[in-house]
Amino acid sequence: MTAVLYDLSLRMGYSYDVPASGARHVMRLMPLSLTNRQRLVAGSITISPTPDEQSHFVDFFQHPATSFMLRAPHEALDIRMQARVQVESQPIAADFSPLLADLPEEIAGIWSLAPDSPHHFLGDSPRLTQTREIADYARGCTKPDLTAMQIAHALCTRINKDFTYDPDATTVDTTPLEAFKLKRGVCQDFTHIMILALRSLGIPAGYVSGFLRTIPPPGKERLEGADAMHAWVRIWCGETIGWIELDPTNDIAASMDHIVVAYGRDYADVVPVIGVLKSYGGQRAVQAVDVIPLK
User: Domain named Transglutaminase-like: which ranges (predicted)?
Assistant: First the structure.
């Protein structure tokens, strides 16, 4: 088994037209340590201005999170994360997943309600409500003789082919149905559409938030801070195989280039920074990410 060591850096900055006060935020930014997948070697997060209160907790899906509060008025908020992560190669799994018709019986045999139980990833979730249009789209990738894994791969490929990556077409609040009708969007949109499509077929699916190592075109230098946070799909393919991860934005299986930060039912469970504050007027946000493999 081979492994890659990465140095990660992330900056998330917010500036306000009118100073904000009474701000309370929750962050999920630090990569996870996952058995036989990846190991967080070291990591740190700095916040400016310095919070008046700060606490740490583990959420339902077993992700470390940080809650902090800023009482005094502030014109900007700056959050920086640095981490070193080792990502291991994953063996290529043979397809021992059940036929779609047999999957409900395997799901019914799972009595656990632990965070990774498939039961949490079948129905509607905070940002995902079943829609007829996406369900009809999903049925176009099914045949009686296909396994759950084959259907997941077929949907991943079809979404990649049918949708255009366009960062100007959608926002973080765009619904999956709106993105589906546009046939354009970003990784969050493609991930949400694929999750809804899979769930409409009875295949448990969830959201993965993380980082993706990007490689510049031949002859081009890598631009500092040009990477971004990424999203892809987690699919439960039966008791024998368990969970697999596919990236519809790039039509690939998650690999050593994918670094996991959080798992959830949809984006609402894994938002990197979320909170409330007292202010009015507009605000501007900037994000810069570096994913650097160590030689």
Answer: 179-250
